[in-house]
Write a structure and sequence with these properties.
The structure is a homodimer.
Chain A (H helix, E strand, L loop, with lengths): L1 H6 L20 E17 L6 H16 L13 H5 L4 E9 L8 H5 L10 E5 L6 E5 L2 H12 L3 E3 L2 E14 L5 E7 L7 H13 L4 E5 L14 H7 L9 H13 L3 E8 L14 E2 L17 E2 L4 H15 L6 E5 L5 H5 L2 H10 L3 H17 L4 E5 L1 H4 L10 E4 L6 H6 L3 E4 L2 H4 L25 H5 L15 E8 L9 H5 L4 H9 L11 H17 L10 H4 L10
Parallel strand pairs in A: 1-2, 2-4, 7-8, 7-16, 8-9, 9-12, 12-13, 13-14, 14-15, 15-16
Antiparallel strand pairs in A: 1-6, 3-4, 3-6, 5-6, 10-11
Helix pairs in contact in A: 2-5, 6-8, 9-12
């Protein structure tokens, strides 16, 4: 059986490009060594460049100067040193826009409606002594190109150089408009600095959406203007609250790095902690045994049949959403526990007086929260249950996140909703770390096993979909639920694994040489971005012994 | 089936002691709040105290001052503030030895032969205004008592206090003499600072042995006096080498913290990298496919049938071991690949000329390496294969590490060897993190699933052993093999999980109240030491949502 399995594995043939993540959709590289001139500089050939573009260029220059990553080969590029003496030199990089429109800030471009952003770029890195040229239709595209350019450079004995010049990338545009990462900051809290560092790493692999699952039943670390009592009574402590200034800081930081912050206020479930400040709005708060009332402790859900609670929730969501530039906002909608409402006398009385079923009341509730978003010109995002398990009226352009199983994407597509892939069986970064519920000596995580980068990388965004349905796929993301995570392991549990989906949804199914994406050719490049991340202060973990990282293919299952 | 399973789980009843890891074998606590006097000090009532005891006391005072850990309860102890105003005060702690012998340094006590060390201590923390008293037979015992004392203190609004005074611990001595942690620094390199931080954390939970798997087939990061070429050609880089000074630094640092450094030079397998400097001593170096010649890449083993190689290996081990104070030294001996020797013409010629079988040659080789240790007064340690899979003559006092399966302990015991439990099915910290071999899209780690702290904690050191055989069990350890680990995740993959075995082998099977050790009562205490580790700069991960950590038992599978 093992023999039969091994026979199916194709021997790995390295691509020419041993770097670049995600790999551009078009890419031609050479084998010439090219060193940066000591006077190397990046010229912004843009009239009145926005400050965040100027800052991005500064960061790029900093990375090129400070990464000092040696090539991941035996000898670490020491053999290049002699040849570098006579190698051609790159005097600079010139970046410019392809149209004469007044340039908008990266931050402005990054938060445009999904599907309308211009993220493509073209890049040539010549070996004839002339400057490299990066062009795009937008500052956002220029930023994407800068993150590619940054990954071309290595260090050997103090010389910064590329070993794969000339490089030609023509119109590298993403295969999917949504490339995300989700972080849960409610089960355990993450300081602003951890989020910013995560946003940096996201931007390095061209992830463009930060899905911020900011609150949940365990804590409410968000100070909402007009609702200060929710965080003051629902956060873990006064120092574990995101203030309005923190939110703006994070949103600005993200947008300047091409990342749109899509916040989620999960409703009506996952809201128990609101009872600390508003017990009138929460059914079955901390009801026992929690297993009867919720998927995890503590139980507690918004009283969706109550007009007062509905108004409260819509006002709360409006107050949060109006401070955010993103066109997307998630109202959640997962894991509704009907027994909670069946046992809640107020909900039963509300249903009786309105003559509605629970499903009808849920639809009314959801329409109200969604109206608070559409009134602000925003598009609602929901978890899959809202379309697969309930009969809720949703705006046609609602975005649906598939999480329970990748196989549910087809069902969502059959209802003609747009899809973001977030399946637990491929993309949940928390799986496989053991049971976090107490007093369960032999338990493991509900979504065992650990989702390896390889497993994630083999995800097919179009599996089970008809050709006509493919346009419904906006993209996808990996996710970190934080029951067993905290600032102590955010880097190591996320990176480099979350780069898997970044390449799936930027590069698509096909490598630039026309072959299918595969874990064999991906690994050396994933090593490269991992070592680069470490150089930049993100604690991305080793994927193999260093010995193997220096010898692509040699540590393959069948080398 | 689920129902039947749940019915077996006993509802958790919290012990009085919500702190202390490992929990002392004898412990009486009260419910009185006791605050530290502003003039609190620790008096060393020892004539001519050794400097490392003085330093240990300074560290204890530092932890008490700087931990500033709030109680893990709802409100974080804010409710204690009012009562603390009139609470009794502890003026100091006096530490003294129970005999009048001239005190030896902790570092001296820590490296005595296994089973001969005096690690016990007694501690009383009164509420009558008098000082606490810590006594022991040795400075090592005093150090163990200090680490217990450190864990009693919390912060509320700037007041340092205990909530469980008075405390009385009478003769807390470890159930097992060997309580270890193993780190592999060969698959990926760990700088000295990471090792020291790990040693700190180990000492906080009374782990007393650092099993240092320092070299392997992938790299040889050890500069051996007389053999500088092995590291200079076999380390990953010139900066990834432990110099003799580094080794002495680490050994001294460990010993001053009650930790004996037991180094391992794994032989004759796991030695491929030696071929970089001594190709004459290595058979099947990097032979392909590696699967035919080794358990993992690269292949390469010492030519055990060669007299020259045997002499080289014995000299190498002697040169390493003589610089180490530990009485234990491991020569490894796992995963010998016989096909490698069958295909190695030199080995076949050597066997032919000597008239020995491979097994006989292995015995000769091993006796030579072990003689190099016994000549230095040291005891050899080997992996289980040396007694279970081979017919090697070993010194009677050889210590055998059981790793393949916990069920093999009985077989080792039946051969009357002393045992250190290191079973992969309970104690391997690397399991469950996915396949590290390349080009294996659906692979998982060979020892899936992840070994949860709960699984590790349920290990029974005496399982399968007769009463008479129990004395053969020296203790056990958790282990980090570093194929997928690096400085980026050492803290998060090790802590707090490795504290599981620390308590198993200190406390034994029974809690101080006479009940059996169990994961239900362990969790709140494990949270406590985890949060304390984080306060001290060790990035131990969250085990649950913070909400659950503040509510012992409420997030149990059946709360």
């Amino acid at each position: 059986m093992l023999g039969a399995f091994i026979a199916l594995i194709v021997t790995f043939v390295p691509l020419g490009a041993n770097a670049l993540w995600p790999i551009p959709r078009s890419l031609q590289t050479g084998t010439t060594l090219l060193k940066l001139a000591s006077s190397f500089d990046i010229k912004i050939s843009v009239t009145n460049p926005p400050q965040d573009l100027v800052d991005a260029v500064s960061r790029t220059k900093g990375f090129i100067q400070n990464d000092k990553l040696q090539r991941l080969v035996v000898g670490r590029g020491a053999n290049d040193s002699a040849a570098l003496g006579s190698a051609p030199t790159l005097p600079g990089l010139t970046i410019s826009l392809l149209n004469n429109n007044a340039p908008r800030a990266i931050a402005t471009e990054a938060v445009q409606a999904i599907g309308t952003r211009s993220e493509g770029y073209s890049l040539t890195v010549p070996t004839d002594g002339t400057s490299a040229i990066l062009t795009a239709n937008s500052t956002l595209g220029l930023f994407r190109g800068l993150t590619t350019f940054e990954q071309l450079w290595y260090d050997s004995a103090g010389v910064t150089y590329s070993y794969q010049a000339p490089v030609k990338i023509v119109n590298d545009i993403p295969a999917f408009p949504y490339r995300g990462f989700m972080l849960d900051t409610a089960r355990n809290f993450f300081p602003v600095a951890d989020i910013k560092r995560t946003l940096d790493a996201m931007s390095w692999v061209k992830i463009n959406t930060f899905h911020w699952h900011i609150v949940d039943s365990q804590s409410f670390p968000l100070d909402v203007p007009g609702f200060p009592e929710i965080a003051s009574k629902g956060a873990y402590s006064s120092t574990e609250i995101y203030s309005p200034a923190n939110i703006q800081d994070i949103v600005s930081y993200a947008a300047a790095r091409g990342v749109d912050v899509m916040m989620e206020i999960d409703t009506p479930g996952h809201t128990a902690i609101i009872a600390n400040s508003h017990p009138e709005h929460i059914a079955c708060n901390q009801a026992s045994p929690w297993t009867d009332f919720a998927n995890e402790p503590p139980a507690g859900q918004l009283r969706l049949a109550s007009a007062a609670t509905t108004n409260f929730t819509a006002s709360l969501i409006s107050a949060i959403a109006q401070a955010l530039p993103s066109k997307l906002f998630s109202t959640g909608g997962d894991e509704l526990n009907t027994n909670c409402y069946a046992k809640d006398s107020q909900t039963q009385a509300d249903l009786k007086s309105s003559g509605k079923t629970l499903e009808q009341a849920l639809s009314t509730f959801t329409q109200a929260t969604h109206k608070s978003l559409t009134d602000l010109g925003k598009t609602p995002v929901v978890w899959e249950e809202m379309v697969l398990e309930h009969t809720v009226t949703l705006p046609k352009d609602t975005v649906v996140m598939v999480w329970i199983s990748s196989q549910h994407a087809a069902s969502v597509a059959s209802k003609n909703f747009r899809i973001v892939h977030a399946p637990s069986n491929y993309f949940y970064l928390d799986c496989g770390a053991g049971e976090w519920l107490g007093n369960d000596p032999t338990g493991n995580s509900w979504c065992d096993p650990f989702k390896t980068w390889q497993k994630s990388y083999t995800f097919d965004p179009f599996a089970g979909l008809s050709t006509a349905q493919r346009s419904l796929v906006l993209g996808g993301q990996q996710l970190l639920w934080a029951e067993q995570s905290s600032p102590e392991n955010i880097d190591s549990i996320v990176w480099p694994r979350a780069a898997s989906s970044a390449e799936i949804f930027w590069t698509g199914a096909t490598l630039p040489d026309g072959t299918a994406r595969n874990v064999g050719s991906a690994l050396p490049r994933l090593h490269d971005i991992r070592y680069r991340m470490v150089r930049r202060g993100v604690r991305a973990i080793a994927l193999q012994p260093h010995w193997c990282a220096l010898r692509p293919g040699v540590c393959d299952l069948r080398a």
